[in-house]
Structures are given as structure tokens and as C-alpha cells.
Amino acid sequence: MPPGEIHDGVSEGGGAYTLKTFRLSQALVASLAEEISGHPKELELAGVLLEDPGLEGNLRGLHEAMQQCVGPGSLAVQTQWFTLLEQLLSQSRAIKPETITGTLSPLQWSRVRDYCFSHIDQRITLDDLAGLCGLGRFPFLKQFKRTVGMTPHAWLLRLRLERACGLLSRSAQPIVEVAHAVGFYDQSHFNRAFRQAFGVAPSRYRT
Fold first, then answer.
1. Do the beta carbons of residue 78 and residue 19 sit within 8 Å?
2. Taking burial as the number of CB atoms within 10 A of a residue's CB, which of 46, 125, 194, 203 is the most buried?
3. Whole-angstrom distance, CA of residue 167 vs CA of residue 67
């Protein structure tokens, strides 16, 4: 909803419902829109309704990720923000995304890979990775995905889970220590990601 537009709070049919919202400052949206479009623009949102099940699902996923206390600067949240705002703002015809071509050079890819390997137990942000390549965050996202075939977050998650498999197989470290060693902020987050990737809990994988 554009700034100033009033939502009546009434559901269709008058039944009970849960409303999940993002409240974004105009400055934040404008700055991200500038990164995505490649130039500053006075943002004007049309009062339109977008019906897109894929976009809706991605918005729900972002809302859940932000509720998991991973922080607004996490690689997962940053990646989802850019991806979603590119879709949302272009579909509402507020901006035209900049055309990004090419892939990461072998040197850029090597820098990103080596940095992630050596900092796997630490918080890694989109700013960190884009800076290693001398690129803005939006161009980096596009070129990384074209180079690797997945987003930086998806690739780093897979790397962390593969490293966790090795630690679980070779050592008797408590699972919570394995989780921290590969960059998960708590064991429940690690368990959930591990089960989703491999179909079993870390404790079952070890046995």
C-alpha cells in the first residue's frame, strides 16, 4: 500500500484472519530501488493489487526468516529482500530493473569461495561478498547466480551443511558445537536446515 493509504482492517467475508505486514520507510525503499534500477528515482507506487502466488509465497518466506531472529543483515534476508523488491517494484511498474550481464570472473569467484571457506563459522553478509568483487549488491547477486546456478545464500547454506556432515562423521563433538562451527546461530535452526536438506536429523545422521 502506498504511504497514506488506509487499510480498513476488514477481511473479505468478515471472518477472523492474521495479517502479516512489512512496514518500510520510504528512504529504505528508495535506496534499494536505486540499487536495483541503477539510478535514483522518485518512487511512486500505484494503488494496485498484485495477485501472484509465487510472490506471495516468497513474501511469507521472508517474513518467517525475519521472525527467526537471524537479523536484517543476514545473507538470507538480504538476498530475499533484493529478489522480492525487484519482483514487486517491477510488477507494480515503479521501476525498471537494471540489466545485468556477464558472470563473476575466475578471480572474483575464487575470492568469494576462499572467503566463505575461511569464515564459515562467522556471519557473512551480502555486503562482504559483493565488496570482495568490487560490485554493488544487486549486480553481484545477478552475476553470482549466473555463475553458480543458485543464490549466494543457497550456496553458502549447502557449503555449511556439507561441512557439518564431515564434522558429524569424523568427531564426537556435541551437535550444538557442530552447528556453531559451521555458522548456525542456534541448534534448532541447524536441525531444521539439516533435516530439510538430508531428510534426517543430525543425530540420526551421526548414527
1. no
2. 194
3. 29
pLDDT surpasses 60 at 70: no
CA distance linking residue 152 with residue 138, whole number of Å? 12
Q: Is 52 left (phi over 0), alpha (psi -120 to 50) or beta?
A: beta
Q: What's the sign of the alpha-carbon dihedral 73, 158, 64, 25? A: positive
pLDDT digits (tens, 9 = 90+) for 154-194: 999 999 999 999 999 988 889 999 999 999 988 888 999 99
Condensed to tens digits (0 to 9), the pLDDT of residues 4-36 reads 677 777 777 778 888 888 887 888 888 888 888
Can you tell me the distance from the alpha carbon of 153 to that of 159, in angstroms, rounded to the nearest whole number? 10
The structural domains of the chain, with segments of one domain joined by +, span: 1-99, 100-149, 158-207
Instruction: Enter the DSSP assignment of 38.
Output: S
Three-state SS letters, 139-198: HHHHHHHHHHCCCHHHHHHHHHHHHHHHHHHHCCCCHHHHHHHCCCCCHHHHHHHHHHHH
Residue range 94-114, pLDDT digits in tens: 788 888 999 999 999 999 999
Residue 142 CA: distances (Å) to CA of 30, 120, 188: 20, 22, 31
Q: How far apart are CA 115 and CA 96, in angstroms?
A: 33
CATH architecture for segment(s) 158-207: Orthogonal Bundle (1.10)
- Rg for the chain, CA atoms, rounded: 20
